[in-house]
Specification:
It contains 13 helices and 14 strands. The chain is of the alpha/beta class. It has 2 domains: 196 residues, 3-Layer(aba) Sandwich (Rossmann fold); 152 residues, Rossmann fold. Helix 3 packs parallel to helix 4, helix 5 packs across helix 6 and helix 12 packs across helix 13.
Length: 408
């Protein structure tokens, strides 16, 4: 993001501007000085194979910073503004760690990131050396919050919770349909996120009467799924389950559709490509596909208003946007309660946070070992170029279609 060039200002002009700003923000000037900004390190993969998702996360975080600053900054700190330092992990663990080190030298009070679980795990470990809070916006692996690190906070559910919710919903749908699905093939990316999710799915499926016939891993990036589609056709499962990132998710779905592989359903958990962009651009491919994922609360007026703003800016309202936006809000709330950017006070404020994540279908925030126990995923289904919530019931917009009609 290009930095605005600053014009030289005289001392008299600076003081006049400062006085006017103080009046509009409602906080007093002390000796004519503005309160120091709070530096926040924001790390996402804005280049590399998941650049779209990373750019979406950066966009959401930027919107939140701008909104908080326009509303008067951190009032408990005299109106201190959030000062974002943006880093690009380039989808590489070592680069994410290097960004943490560089931002530590710049004096950041906290970090936000990193989309990919492996990068988030390593980057938050690096931040722990400096006792700097690290707020995870997107990162599904439960290793992120199972290492005993006091500086790590994740407001969203991990893949363990998402798998449990997804399996429960799939079991209920299958039971209502007379148990039509008895077998599944699981396709997953070969990193920590996909592999961990696939193993959990395979272990849980028998509990709802479905056997995992095969687990198929793939590299990132993968440019062709023809061979995997042939393996799936040969295995003849009732369901294909997917756990991978944006490009591979969409390419696999498109390949199975083109090869007319008939299935009772395609059901993903944390499917990186299940979003409005996919549903709108490829409605025939996405139709009736289901996903258990991070989603906004469709009944929240604030979420709907943010969705309109994002779309008016020419962006897609993906989970990366509103999760990053929410996490910046969580940080601002903690700074208000701490009344300071001191790392120990900020960490304590986060650990005891009761922040209300108004955009999300969550209960009250309660961190236990860094994981928000109030976080919930949503079960979704693509419908005519749109995406609808089908579970939990209190947020549902439509009833699920399962099994899906056969391809012609």
């Amino acid at each position: 993001m290009a930095k605005k060039q600053k014009m030289p200002v005289s001392r008299r002009g600076f003081m006049a501007g400062s006085t006017a700003l103080a009046g509009t923000m409602g906080f007093p000037l002390i000796g004519g000085a503005q309160p120091a900004g709070v530096k926040v390190g924001i790390i996402h993969p804005v280049t590399g194979f998941v650049a779209f998702a990373g750019s979406q996360g950066r966009f959401g975080a930027t919107m939140a910073v701008e909104d908080i600053n326009k509303a008067g900054g951190i009032k408990a700190m005299g109106g201190a503004k959030l000062d974002p330092l943006f880093g690009d992990s380039q989808s590489k663990v070592e680069v994410g760690v290097a960004e943490v080190e560089k931002m530590n030298e710049a004096g950041v009070a906290a970090y936000i990131g990193c989309y990919q679980s492996p990068v988030g795990i390593a980057a938050s470990q690096a931040a722990a050396k400096y006792n700097t809070p690290f707020l995870i916006d997107v990162g599904a692996s439960d290793l992120i919050v199972s290492r005993g690190l006091k500086n790590v906070f994740r407001i969203k559910p991990g893949f363990g919770v998402c798998v449990d919710q997804g399996i429960e919903a799939l079991g209920a749908m299958n039971k209502a349909a007379g148990g039509v699905a008895k077998t599944a093939v699981i396709v997953h990316e070969s990193g920590e996120f996909g592999t961990g999710t696939a193993k959990l799915l395979a272990g849980k499926l028998p509990g709802i009467g479905i056997a995992a016939k095969e687990l198929i891993g793939h590299d990132n990036p993968t440019r062709n799924f023809d061979n995997i589609a042939l393996r799936i056709r040969s295995s003849a499962p009732d369901i294909v389950m997917m756990s991978n990132y944006q490009n591979e998710y969409v390419l696999l779905a498109r390949t199975l559709h083109q090869q007319k592989v008939n299935l009772a359903g395609m059901f993903s958990v944390l499917g990186g490509g299940f979003n409005y962009k996919f549903a709108k651009e490829q409605p025939e491919v996405s139709q009736y596909m289901m996903d258990t994922n991070h989603w906004y609360n469709p009944k929240s007026e604030k979420a709907q208003a943010l969705k309109k703003r994002v779309e008016a800016a020419g962006k897609e309202f993906t989970f990366e946007v509103y999760l990053a936006y929410t996490v910046v809000g969580l940080l601002a709330d903690a700074l208000e309660h701490a009344g300071s950017a001191d790392k120990e006070k900020l960490t304590a404020a986060l650990a005891s946070s009761t922040f209300k994540a108004e955009l999300m279908p969550y209960g009250p925030t309660k961190f236990v070992n860094g994981q928000n126990e109030g976080a919930k995923a949503a079960v979704l289904q693509a419908d005519k170029g749109d995406i609808k919530v089908i579970a939990p019931a209190e947020f549902a917009e439509m009833k699920p279609v399962f099994p899906k009609p056969k391809l012609g």
